[in-house]
């Protein structure tokens, strides 16, 4: 390992050690896991393999929001008015 790489690794390690997790951060992690466990409920609405579903939780500090994302592929009943629909 070169000196530069060791230095960068040390800096990153120091930064990570000094960053405290907040209750909010832990809540986001828990929400991500809870959302992943919602697959059986999603499957009730649309029979799609788990691998084809994109699930994520994002937080925006400047917008003061927590966004839950569940994206599933669809190819039926698509209309110009609802092809980007956010509900089943």
Walk me through what this model shows.
The chain has one domain (3-71). The protein is built from 3 helices and 2 strands, in the order H-H-H-E-E. It has helices at residues 3-18, 23-36, 39-45, and strands at residues 54-60, 65-71. The chain has a two-stranded antiparallel ribbon with strand order 1-2. The longest helix has 16 residues, at 3-18. It is elongated and about 55 Å long. The protein starts with a helix and ends in a 17-residue tail after the last strand.
Indicate the topology.
Elements: H1 3-18, H2 23-36, H3 39-45, E1 54-60, E2 65-71
Antiparallel strand pairs: 1-2
Short description:
With 88 residues, this protein is of the alpha+beta class. Helix content is 42%, strand content 16%. It has one domain.
The level of helicity is 40-55%
End-to-end separation: 52 Å
Q: Give me the secondary-structure category.
A: alpha+beta
Order of helices and strands: HHHEE
Domain module tally: 1
Tally the beta strands. Answer: 2
Number of helices: 3
Which strand order does the major sheet show? 1-2
- Uncertain runs with pLDDT below 50, 5 residues or more? none
**Radius of gyration computed on alpha carbons:** 19 Å
Instruction: Report mean pLDDT, rounded to a whole number.
Output: 79
Q: Which band does the percent of strand residues land in?
A: 15-25%
Tell me, briefly, the overall form: elongated
